[in-house]
User: Fold these one by one.
Assistant:
Number 1:
Amino acid sequence: MFEGKRLVVGITGGIAAYKAADLVSRLSKEGAQVQVILTEAARHFISPLTLATLSRRPVLWDLFSEGHHGVQHIDVAQEADLVVVAPATANIIAKMAVGLADDLLSTVVLATKAPVLVAPAMNVNMYENPVFQQNLHRLQELGFYVIEPESGMLACGMEGKGRLAPVEQILQAAAGILNPRRDLAGKTVLVTAGGTREAIDPVRYIGNRSSGKMGYAMAAVAQERGARVVLITGPTMLPPPPGIEVIGVETTREMQVEVLRYFPKADIVVKAAAVADYRPVSLSTHKLKKTGEKLTVELEPNPDILAELGRLKDRQVLVGFAAETEELLANASHKMEKKKLDMIVANDVTREGAGFGSDTNIVSLLFADGRVVELPRMSKTEVAHRVFDHLVELPAWRSKNHAYGMEEE
Ligand code: PMT
């Protein structure tokens, strides 16, 4: 995956800098040419000698170093196939978000045309700080690749999100960027994400815990693999993925309208959204007043969008998700059959690291022919890759794959 590839690994000043030694070592052993750049702060955490030995070339940190013929930061930036910043502190992320270039690493990041993969690591309070979150979202909007940190015990003794993603995951992401699979090229993929909301009055609604992460990952991966992607999403806190047509909806019926509008053009539909099955019979035009008495909200069923697609489908491959709290495989299999799906991705949302809100998921893939593939805990991006890996091997897909090309609007 890395043979002959030229990577810049930028290491910034956090305690996770020591893990970058493993990253550099693994990349070098896999055949990559690795140019390490340290920030001034990173040199307090890890020795240049360690990294020079592992990468078998001198480590750079000085923007004004002599002895290089040419303009060093431009040469390094231009030669790179990929820039990986790991660990990335809040400081470098802030600089990248505004285009500040005051040292060698930030200057190389600004000057490169190569993709940039960022693996943040920091204290949980810094990670949750809204200013930092804004900067991270900005990077994602600009097309930087971001590997979310993990949750757990941090070096500062606090518990929470901020631990550098495992080196294995960073390697996988880097390999994916350098060797993109284009097996969905020319296809249109319709993805739904997030949760729908049903209003009770102007300030209250019935909703669910979906963050949109699973659906957004499905959309991003489909795009990475060459598809034209339409993402129909309930309200989320996530930035719109660059290059993807995004349609925001709130209610199940709004989602139904948009899904049906795009369905005829779709080759694949992935319904990762958590859809409200019921809505209030009546919507109060004023905020309901507290009376101290019991309050009953009468609900009526919403349309089942996916079941409708199952009835309408002619050539489309349909992938559903099943969020279960018991009898995972039996319930998911029942849904697959009832909604005439080609595949269903079943997640037991009671498990740690699975389902709503988390960056990882633990899923089983069920197929119409009765096969079941159980996957271990992995990032939602990796789950998305596995789903498409299996989908492109389905007989239903392979038989139609040659018959249909991309249809333009
Ligand atoms: O968004 P995240 O925080 O990342 O969380 C991810 C997730 C848990 C939401 C996702 O992995 C997931 O399981 N999505 C499906 C949730 C769900 O609504 O499951 P369900 O078992 O109720 O529905 C089965 C399928 O029918 C789903 O594909 C759903 O989109 C679809 N459906 C359901 C009801 C309805 N009225 N219309 C539908 O189309």
Number 2:
Amino acid sequence: MNITIVGTGYVGLVTGTTLAELGNTVYCVDIDSKKVDQMKLGIVPIYEPGLEEMFLRNIQAQRLFFTTNLKEALDQSEVIYLALPTPPGEDGSADLSYVLSVATQIGEMLTDYKIIVNKSTVPVGTANKVRQTIAAKTNIEFDVVSNPEFLREGFAVEDSMNPARVIVGSESEKAQEIMAKIYQPFTNTGTPIIFMDEKSSELTKYAANSFLAVKITFMNEIANYCEKVGADVDKVRLGMGSDDRIGHRFLFPGIGYGGSCFPKDVKALIRSGKQEGFDFQILEATEDVNQAQKIILVSEIENYFRGDLKGKKIALWGLAFKANTDDIREASSLDNIKLLLEKGATITAYDAIAEENVRKILGDEISYAPDMYSALQDADCLLIATEWSEFKNPNFDLMAARMKQKVIFDGRNMFALEQVENTDFRYKSIGRRTIG
Ligand code: NAD
């Protein structure tokens, strides 16, 4: 099948490459001409494990093309996927301007039947808005389908090639048939495709992300309470997670969730609720708790230095919002950096993958180290903000030799307490006793 993907970011590029890998001819359209030029040269503009190989293979096989010209791509395709940004507007509601402006353009360009598949995360009722926007410009038949995306950054290729399920929201039989054909390689190997009405499909995505945000936040509160009463969150989570109604995943405490999805989706669902006179109390609490959790170690650092961070040199390991991605949107590292700089500290950060993106917004407000040990040179303490696996088994002797004071604030519980116990370090993590 010939398919157009509009918006070639984390979701669009991975979806486009996956659909090409499944044998389709895919035209990736992006408004960012620099990005399109890069991709035409075989350069992947984002960091995603496993993507480059698949991307290059499909370019070479002439199944994956890049353009800024929507009309050119659309004319050659039967199905148009929208993978456009839906960032939070000022009031927290999803900004639909990208999606609706492309819908207007599609309406103006249609010459024959097409299916418009929305992969962006959007509030209930958006498929209908897209339909009305296109219909205002054309009399040609078309269908709009909701097909939310569940991939995780850092595992996007794996998730896209092996989805747990495919959700298709559409009441059009014709569209359902074509969607079933696109996803046949998945259903053929047992992946369920769940057809539903478009509103339920749109809500499924928000419900899933919000539930995961609640689960993380619940565990963070349990961790904070563990510290008050002297319990160990590692033991508690193992005990809880062994119940298969709960499971072990998403029970790891830390300095809050970030990224381009959870914060914005929680906000958008709260806002959508308000528009219907409905209060999502649990989500409002989740947002507040998470915001406080992101910077919970700053007050610990401040207390340790008796309220005076002026001139303190802080080493920071990790800038990405989580491991295996270069994405820094809503990253906890940024909240910590902002606050620590305000309090007069200086920061030397290390993150091999996300540094470039942070440089774009912070420039030389902080320093950047070429490796994890260099970041520690003369540092008064180390703060860990991302769970990159290279931080898991460091050489504590080398660390101690580099640092001025042997103090670690670990926002991602990277080390087992036993690992640190035999060192000279003072070690503060989340939900566990402090060592030293
Ligand atoms: P992104 O910001 O990485 O990519 C969006 C792309 O769209 C950019 O390349 C941008 O240049 C392009 N674009 C903007 N306006 C355009 C236009 N008019 N025409 C063509 N291209 C245009 O965004 P993303 O992270 O891929 O997210 C896209 C959607 O998918 C959002 O709704 C998001 O909530 C949802 N989603 C994201 C993830 C994730 O992990 N990132 C997972 C599931 C769902």
